[in-house]
Amino acid sequence: LDSQFNLSAEKYDAIFLLGVLYHLKNPFFVLEKLAGVARYCFLSTRIARQTDNGQPISQGPIAYLLGPSECNNDSTNFWIFSAEGLKRLINRTGWSVLSYLSVGVTANSTPADPERDERAFCLLRSEIVPMVTASPNPVPAHDEAMISWNTGTVNPGKVYVSIDGQDELLFATSRRGSAPASWIRTGHTYEFRLYDSSHTRLLDKVAVSTIRE
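Above: the chain's sequence. Below: its structure in token form.
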């Protein structure tokens, strides 16, 4: 999987990576490649707070290489991360954490004991894939939408909006950011478009609708 990680599509809105990370010899490579093609990732993996001999690892960004008999005596398991190690890996591979939760034995989890299992569940957003989003969407009556964007590069971009299919109006200019659109009204259509700085290449777009009273 690490050396032949070929995907069937160029872009994905969301991917699920559940119970896979510890089977990878090079999880950094896989997560980084996914960050370049997917907007969001639902990630679940086993984490640990102690090694097999009780040495604590929860305070640092640790990647622990498993022995072949650890983690359910499965030699296809390789890496177990501390919670901080997992978050560091996520950040360094081009993702941001939108939501994080760990369940199971959260006091002294270890891969050496199947009865002391702890799992992390994460919702991740790519910082590499260009995107523009609106929240909430659809927009309730008399409310506003928060428009967020990220070009996915160090280069600035431009966000335009087309109202009812009319000519585009400049909404914002920067590499990434958020700004409220307080003028959303029912009965109208809005499309926000993220371009490169020259306004020649469309990077992403989102249609914003409204909830009728």
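The longest strand covers residues 38-47.
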